[in-house]
């Protein structure tokens, strides 16, 4: 397959993404690439469908994530990737099950600081893959028009599965409205800038840079971005996702 | 005479239903994004006694209009805590029942 010029692809993708986001109705509280920072109320559910295309490997995945709030401080987080293309066998990825316990919450009139511990497992959906246990943390700082999310997760592979780890550092900035209305919740548009790292035992750490937009409506969010692998110029990924709250 | 009595009863009925309206304003800390604030609105809308919910992300306030004295202050605070936020101050902006 002929490879496209990454720069042209980036510009075209950004334009397409911008058009898509602006054409739809209204977005937040979480970065693009992680699904651990979102607050979920007692009895509340959030589902996210994320389409991820890697230009270098020419692989497209649909990642379905879900969150359920046992209460305001305890949340169950689930994730399951499915390879849409190329077709073939073993398209279902490994399921991630994680429990989040918020251990610190400092709310003020102007924002919030929250810290939570994460613990869970990676459950293989195929018998030739091994499971892993995972643990980490997530920290959120929200003030005014700015939100910063930091998370790190370490996966300890069992049997022959290699250890792995990841971190994400996300900064979200509310572009519009500059000032919120006195009463009522309107549509909001955020810019997102992220730095992430992915590590696997026996391999170097891959650093990744993501830029994107989030359009936030009271009940749903549509978001998208482009991730550039900082270790490999040709490795570019496009992601588009939507979240629903019910 | 009958007409006069009917008008009086109707007036009494209207005043009884409207006089019991109560408005509460609650200062809520930690309420930062539109997507998160939705949980709060849904919690209060499920309550039979709440007739209207308004949220201000700018002022960090919720305004509730209730049909009677329910929900009580403790129920309101618990709903906000369950939604993941911190209730700070509950103010009864108006209570037509008390006025009458």
Strand order of the largest sheet of chain A: 1-2-3-4-5-6-7-8-9-10-11-12
Major β-sheet strand ordering of chain B: 2-3-1-4
Radius of gyration of chain A: 18 Å
Q: How large a portion of the residues of chain A is in β-strands, by DSSP E?
A: over 45%
Mean pLDDT of chain A: 87
Overall form of chain B:
elongated
- Counting DSSP H or I runs of 4 or more residues, the number of helices of chain B is 4
Helix/strand order of chain A: HEEEEEEEEEEEE
Helix-strand pattern of chain B: HEHEEHEH
Comma- or semicolon-separated keywords:
heterodimer; A: 246 residues; mainly beta; 12-stranded antiparallel beta barrel; 1 helix; 7% helix; globular; disordered N terminus; B: 100 residues; alpha+beta; 4-stranded antiparallel beta sheet; 4 strands; elongated
Describe this structure in words.
The complex is a heterodimer of chains A (246) and B (100). Chain A is mainly beta and 246 residues long. Chain A contains 1 helix and 12 strands; from the N terminus they run H-E-E-E-E-E-E-E-E-E-E-E-E. Chain A has a 12-stranded antiparallel beta barrel. In chain A, strand 5 and strand 6 (132-143) form a beta hairpin. The longest helix of chain A is centred in the N-terminal third of the chain and has 18 residues, at 6-23. Chain B is an alpha+beta fold and 100 residues long. Helices cover 44% and strands 31% of the residues of chain B. Chain B has a 4-stranded antiparallel beta sheet. In chain B, a hairpin with a 4-residue loop joins strand 2 and strand 3. Mean pLDDT of chain B is 82; it is low at 15-19. At the A-B interface, loops of A face helix 2 and strand 2 of B.
